[in-house]
């Protein structure tokens, strides 16, 4: 891996109206989708978030994850339209900055700057749980530190290598989801119509009872979180061929595949379990179903494949994190002395190596933070990111910033429903005192972003936060 850095440009070429083409435009729609799906990790979402939802909400998971899937695809429409108009590296930060305004963009940057490395740490701390089925006595923290180092180094390889590598790992976890689906539908114990009435295990009686509307709303929020990550395709816009036309496809297909590969196995588990009361009463429902239908040996192999899926997700999220910091440095959203080295790319692979390493180092340090604190710190950030994306999609059309490219269907239904759904999530969060600290941290990050913009960036608007277009695409 060639880590020789290109000298960073002192000031982005404002006269040209576009950035210099620094990243390697070498992956197609398929490669982008592979990396994006890897960051979502549908298999680990089913086993961890889906399993938790089954225990808490029973058959309510069917309606909740179906509703969450519709909301997620509508949010994907917003991402797709914005990314088609602004095919610039940097993900949510870049889209919001250009379509909604730099103040909101900087607030989004603050959210992503903290949440991405913390999410990496959360995933890394969970790897030992799955490797533990074969290697006993693993320390979660020591395992996490090793995983973060390995994945950060891997993320510094060129984008095509990472697309191939994450694609191989993704195939393994998709095979695990296919196995769950087949086991459930081959051994159906009840019809699909049994899922239409949401029921949850009543601890007092040990029997199924109707799920309250409030519980269903909570389940929808968990479903939205489980599907999250399809917007990650935008981070690789400057490395995707013909991005102005293809990046929208990458976002939408990532969302559709994610919803299908998570919802269908969960349905199969609910109709294929011998006893729903035992399934919902298990501490690990998905693992319990797998052991029941396939045996302990197969379950162990699948658990190891989930460990690979989690590591794969960490690689993909580290790739995104590096491009976030690189894009912000290139925009001069950071002080000049900090921004200059962070916008450098390697000569051979054209990868933002230093920016990737810095984000990996933050994730490494976060592994020393207790897991419950990490979960609290990242719990509500998604709500604000999606809100800003929906508002950016509206302003993109109505504020005179609309450009040629993909146009979402049924405008303005998608952003309108997204905002309404996020309002519901906000209300549910406010009603749960256990979520107040998480909400407070997210609000603090947003406020810090606005303050940083007002006090530091706005007075320097002639030299900082220069939001230029993507470079013209060249054929390689």
UniProtKB/TrEMBL annotation:
Q: Which residues form a coiled coil?
A: none
Molecular functions (GO terms): transmembrane transporter activity
This protein's GO cellular component annotations are: plasma membrane
The entry's keywords: Cell membrane, Membrane, Transmembrane, Transmembrane helix
TM segments?
33-55, 61-82, 103-128, 140-157, 164-188, 208-230, 251-273, 293-317, 351-371, 377-396, 408-430, 436-457
Q: Which Gene3D superfamilies match?
A: Amino acid/polyamine transporter I
InterPro entries given in the database record: AA/rel_permease1, APC_superfamily
Q: What is its main location?
A: membrane
Localization of this protein: Cell membrane
Q: Does the keyword Cell membrane apply?
A: yes
Pfam family example for this protein? AA_permease_2
Q: How does it sit in the membrane?
A: Multi-pass membrane protein
Q: Can you name this protein?
A: Amino acid permease-associated region
